[in-house]
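Proteins fold reproducibly. Take a sample protein:
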Amino acid sequence: MQNKQEAADNFELWARLVQDIAETRGSNAKVELCANYFAQLAPSEVSLACQFMGEGAFSNISGKRASVGARTIGIAAADYCGIDYDIVFKACRTASGSSTETIQRLFENLPEARQKNTIQHWNLARISELAEELAQTRGRKDKQRILTRVWGGLSPLATKYFLRLLSQGSLRIGFESRSVLQALARSSQVDYEQLRYAHMLTGSLAKTAELACTNRLDQAQFKLFNPIAFMLAAPLHSRSVEHWRDFIAEEKFDGMRCQLHAHGPKVELFSRDLNAITNQFPELVELFGKKEFPPTVIDGEICVFRDQTIQPFQELQ
């Protein structure tokens, strides 16, 4: 029987895998590493591992955010290390170009940080609980207390990736959602296109992984007001195309990709990375709310349109 240190769902092991993927060249090699890791996990563990790799601490469709700012994290890290935030931490961050890389290096090398560290070998589920605790906590000081408690139980490498999870974005390892799905298809031995379609319907890597690992991909369902994966352009090698007449082109609008969900007066908007942006465009909500649509999803581009001309993206910002 595995102990905590050896368990496949140990977050420390997950963090080392992510680092190995970052240092590995070639998409196929990265996918193979990830697929081998997924194969060691139980279905519920695969769901969290996929979510962490492709979405962050929370599923894209959950609407949750940790809401911890970079300055809050930086000040807490400086205090943890016993250094000045403005003079030392900010200079280190400027030199490295990354707050999370800076924190990893400081925690590895400064005695005051090292003596506070006792690795707890938390599993993925425990990391999810800690992220939830951060999301539910209000106030900078309270969030900083949780962060320092978490850091004391993680290695510096795991700390770096825990912080990247909180940003609900890319882990910056050259391994995005498409690669996660390819690894999942290999480990669960399902058809990639069927898996990709299920992900498009659910809008969630975690839910897709759960269905794949339990042979229920055919049960994937779309739910209105849960964003679905966007149809995005992908590179195409010209030599692979025999007849260009089979293709069409369209003008690229200089705006912001958006997915609109509507039913009756209710309208919600989602960005390309599946974040809710409804409150940012009240005029669109009002306009489409008046139309009293049946259940509808519109995938389009938000643009500034003036004098019969689409204006530069900067005006939208």
User: Anything to note?
Assistant: The domain at 246-316 is CATH 3.30.470.30 (D-amino Acid Aminotransferase; Chain A, domain 1). Residues 11-23 form the longest helix (13 residues). The chain has 15 helices and five strands. The chain has three domains: 11-64+173-219, 70-166, 246-316.
